[in-house]
Structures are given as C-alpha cells and as structure tokens.
Amino acid sequence: MEVKNGRSISTRRYPCEKCPLRPLPAFRPFTSDELAFISQFKKGELTVAKGSTVLIEGTHSAHLYTVLFGWGFRYKLLEDGRRQVLNYVMPGDMIGLQGSIMGEMEHSVEALSNLMLCVFERDELYALYRKFPSLAFDITWLAAREECMLDENLLSLGRRTALERAAYLLAFIESRAASVGLNGGKSPVEIPITQTHIADTLGLSLVHTNKTLRKLANRKLIRWLERSYVILEPEALREIARWSGSDGAPRPLV
Amino acid sequence: MEVKNGRSISTRRYPCEKCPLRPLPAFRPFTSDELAFISQFKKGELTVAKGSTVLIEGTHSAHLYTVLFGWGFRYKLLEDGRRQVLNYVMPGDMIGLQGSIMGEMEHSVEALSNLMLCVFERDELYALYRKFPSLAFDITWLAAREECMLDENLLSLGRRTALERAAYLLAFIESRAASVGLNGGKSPVEIPITQTHIADTLGLSLVHTNKTLRKLANRKLIRWLERSYVILEPEALREIARWSGSDGAPRPLV
DNA sequence: CGTTGACTTGACCGTCTTCAAGTTTAGTGG
DNA sequence: CCACTAAACTTGAAGACGGTCAAGTCAACG
Predict the structure, then answer these.
(1) CA distance readout (Å), B169 to B10, B98, B119, B147, B222
(2) Residues 217-236 of chain B: which lie with beta carbon within 7 Å of strand D?
(3) Which chain A positions have a beta carbon within 8 Å of B152's beta carbon?
(4) Does the keyword field hold Transcription regulation (chains A, B) (predicted)?
(5) Which of B83, B154, B247 sits opposite A153 (nearest CB)?
(6) How far apart are CA B122 and CA A3, in angstroms?
(7) Residue B201: how many CA atoms within 13 Å on its side-chain side?
C-alpha cells in the first residue's frame, strides 16, 4: 500500500459483487451484466484522510470516483479566499464527472471524514457509453440529480432567510445521509462538519451562523456534539424551511 | 398550425441539416450519421410566446427541447411566492432533461422572448443512448455544463457582494449570448429582462437591485434601453466580479 | 504548557429590505 | 384619439438582518 498526501491506494477490499452500498433500498437493482462491467471498470480503491483534498479546481484528473464510505464536500474559491461550499458528497455519489467530461475541474473536493473511493479511469468512460447504454443513462441520471440539488441550494441561498437556510441544509443532509446508512445504524444522524463549513454553505458569516444554529438548538431540533451536529427533528426543520423533501425513489449507483 | 396557451407547433421550418446554430464556432462539428439520427429524433418545432410558461414544476413532460431561437429562464418557487431564477436558457441549451430522466420537473421554465424550440420525445431518449453513444455522451456533457454554471451561480449568491453579483450576472449572460449570436450581429448584447428578473436571480430585493444596477450604469458599463439591458463593458464587469470567464471551447448541440 | 482550531458572545455598524409614493411606458377599450 | 390601467422603473426614509470587530472559553495536540 502506498501512502502520499493523506491518500493511499489499497487492494480491492470491496469487490463490486460484495458492494456494501448496492443492497440498500436507495439504489436500483443492477443486472449481472452491468455488475460485471462495473467490476472491471473499477480500477481500485482510494483512501483519503479527513481534511485532505481529493480534487483541485483548475487541474485535470485522470480519474473518476464513486464514494464508498465517508463524507466530503465540493467547493469553489474566489481569488481573495472567500469560499462557497457547493454541495456535500456521500456514499453513492460520483465525483469528478464534470472534470472528466469537460477537461478541467471547475471546483475542488475535500474529505470531511476518512473517505474511501472506488477509482475509475477517465479514459474508459467513453467505452462505458459505447458498451453499456444503460449505465451511460445512469451517469446522466446522477448528473441530473446533482443539478436538482444545486437548484434547491440556489433557491435556499437566494430566497430563504438565515434560519430557513440552516434548517433546510441540516434537513437536506440528514435525509441524504439516512438514505445511505451514514448514521451507522443509530437513529439520529450525526454530521461531521464544523460551523465554518456550515457558514460557507449558507453564505453567512461564521458569527451569524453560530447564532442561527443556536436558535435551532434552543428549540431542541438539533444538538451539538463534539465537532458535529445531531439532527433530532428533521420533520420540524423541513417545516421551517418550507421544504417538502426529496422523492427517495431508488437511484442508480455506478 | 395549432395555437394554444401562447404555444404553437409548426411544421419543420428548420431541418437539422440547415440548422442555423450548428455552423457557429461555439458548437462542435457533427458527423453526418449523427446529424441524420438527430434529424429523425426531432419531432417538430414549438413556438412559445414571450411570457408564457414552457414547463411547470411538479408536472411530467413527454417532451424534451433544445432552444433554437430566443431567451428564457428556469426558476423555482417557495410556497409563499418567493421566486429564485436558477439560470437562463439560450439557443443550443437543452431544457427538460432533468424531468425526462427523473420523471417530475423540479423547476419551471418561462419564455423571456418569443422562443422557438426543437421538440424531442422523452420516450426516445433511451433509444438515443443505445444507438448513438457519442450523442449520449454529448447529453451528459450538456448536463455537466449546466452543473458548472450552477456552481458559479452558487458562489455568486453565497459569497459575492450585491455589486459583484450584478456584474457577474450581466457579464455571464453577455458571454453566453455573444457565443450563440444572440446579439443579432450588433456588437453590444441586449438582454431582454426586467429588473424583477435580475432581482430574483441575484437573491436581492427589487429596490436594491435597481440601486445596484444604477451604479453600474453610472460607470457606463451597462445601459438601460426599453426594458432590456445593454452590456457595454463586459471586461470591466468581469473584473468587478472577479470572474475569469468561461472557456469557450466548442460544445455539443443536440 | 503553549499553541492552534473551533466555538461563543456582546457591541456596533452597514448592507439590504421594506414601506411608501412617486414617474414613465405600453396596452386597452370607449 | 384619449382616458384608464397595469407593469416596470425610480427614489427616499426607516429599520432589520446579518456582518465585522473584539475578546473571550475550551479541548486537542505536540
């Protein structure tokens, strides 16, 4: 095993046939043909340490990844350092697709926890399109889903108040995390992010974010716990944000 | 010709072989095979009158469109009527893909000018994936491009000031419009939107948007002209927004 | 045991919102 | 052709929401 920059490439501990994600109800069932193709499409596993950067804005990447375990986030920077978190990445999410298709990464990705990724070759993506149209369709599906999430985030930043935004963000992350078993069996989901991350997601200052989260905590909708948030009442948060929630229909997993 | 709700379906005045968009340098060249397939994929043309709604959030659509002429915008609403404009659509942009793939539309689309659309059948999309992997790849390309634009818009809403946001938005629209000849040959691009649209895009109030645009107009970077804005100095706007601009590499057109 | 990163809290200030009252322009019907 | 209306834009004033500044506490870490 090779270790560098908080990254290490391991042998394949999780063959696709024994993928821990695939059996979850959140994902659509796959045919054995599809599974066999994905299995040879997958080149290995990459472990990224908490806090290190997976992909960097402005660079080219020879790889494409799917998250197997852990949390991360996508972000962009302004020249003077202002940072905007665009979305969070969780198990089942593909990262690096935009860079694979358009050439250069337009955003960066950082690990919020230790992260395990399935590694694919960018150069083989086109072969997938030629040989497995159903998987190609799935990849477009994933891109459309990401677009949907970004649309909702834009609505949030543009038109929701600070309290609504915070409620939306936490309810949103909770629902995604719960659907892929990120709570690890425990019922209230625990999100490993700092208030700085939340502030950079909501487009608010750190100070104001702190005061806003306190309001939610005072109402006992969330709880603070050693550098992470626990979501106690996702339903109440959704109501504050006036968010109906996402549909939860099974989605593809590549 | 049938007319209903400001919509009319015409015979095919623009066969794909004589597509006015395709020769533009903004689009990648296509093989004759691809062109032939797209030509039979296209079912007709739809004309939508300025101000009418093309697609509605929460509904299912049997169609998928590509914009041939004109301007429009995608938006989402909050229950109480707050509106967020997500992005603008211009010639060469595909609309309704998200709904075609995921079933239900998660946003609405409205025409800013009279709009002419190429109409495709949602049900034939999968056949395209089976028969023309190169076009399937192109569709993913377009989805990735949309994602890129949304990321930049999120950065803008979250981390740019009102003046920077306005400058970014106008420079952004200008560069997209210019690349597809929406200026109609005239050098400064004229954007047919109201200040209400701009406000709903920037996440600002109408009053503050008005005052912010005035600052840009006072510096002679933009000019107001009969219910539309003229962009005089895109370069200066980009500098205010600290935006480097998009790459301008040829993109696919389906 | 000093340093660092994360969180907290209060005070003050400015950007942006809201309210209110206008003007101008385009469209409509008498 | 003109009065009427609605939509879009404009402007000023007051106030709220959120930002910035400053000075803390606390836990983890070498």
Answers:
(1) 34, 23, 29, 16, 12
(2) 224, 227
(3) 76, 106
(4) yes
(5) B154
(6) 47
(7) 22
Q: What are phi and psi of B31, to 5 degrees?
A: -75, 160
Over residues B86-100, the pLDDT tens digits come to: 999 999 999 999 999
Q: Angle CA(A34)–CA(A37)–CA(A42) in degrees, nearest 5?
A: 120
- Contact in structure between B252 and B28 (CB atoms under 8 Å): yes
Q: What is the residue extent of each domain of chain A?
A: 2-134, 151-241
Calpha distance B4→B108 (Å, rounded): 18
Q: What is the CATH number of domain A2-134?
A: 2.60.120.10
B225: CB partners within 8 A, 6+ apart: B190
- pLDDT at B225 (0 to 100): 81
The number of C-beta contacts closer than 8 angstroms across A and B is 147
Q: Do B129 and A130 lie within an 8 Å CB cutoff?
A: no
Q: Is the CB of B210 under 7 A from strand D?
A: yes
Amino acid at A134: S
Return d(Cα B243, Cα A17) in angstroms, integer. 45
Q: Are the beta carbons of A119 and A14 closer than 8 angstroms?
A: no
Question: Tens of pLDDT along A80-120?
Answer: 999 999 999 999 999 999 999 999 999 999 999 999 999 99
- Residues A151-241, CATH architecture: Orthogonal Bundle (1.10)
- CATH of span B2-132: 2.60.120.10
Q: What's residue B1's pLDDT?
A: 47
Please check whether residue A105 is in contact with residue A61, taking contact to mean a CB–CB distance below 8 angstroms.
yes
Say which residues have a Cβ less than 8 Å from residue A131's Cβ, sequence separation at least 6: A37
Pairing of strands B72-77, B83-89: antiparallel
Residue of A nearest to B251 (CA): A102
Among B126, B134, B140, select the one facing A139 at the smallest CB separation: B140
A18 touches strand C (CB under 7 A): no
Amino acid at B161: T
Architecture of the structural domain at B160-241: Orthogonal Bundle (1.10)
Q: How far apart, in Å, are the Cα atoms of B158 and each of A77, A146, A203, B147?
A: 11, 18, 4, 16
Task: Tell me which residue of A201, A159, A83 sits closest to B160, measured CA to CA.
Answer: A83
Please list every residue in chain A whose beta carbon sits closer than 8 Å to the beta carbon of residue B97.
140, 144
**pLDDT tens digit string along B157-185?**
999 999 999 999 999 999 999 999 876 65
Closest listed residue to residue B245, CA positions, set B148, B163, B113: B148
Q: How far apart are CA B84 and CA B198, in angstroms?
A: 10
- The set of residues, in sequence order, having a beta carbon less than 8 Å from that of A206 and lying 6+ positions away, is A195, A196, A199
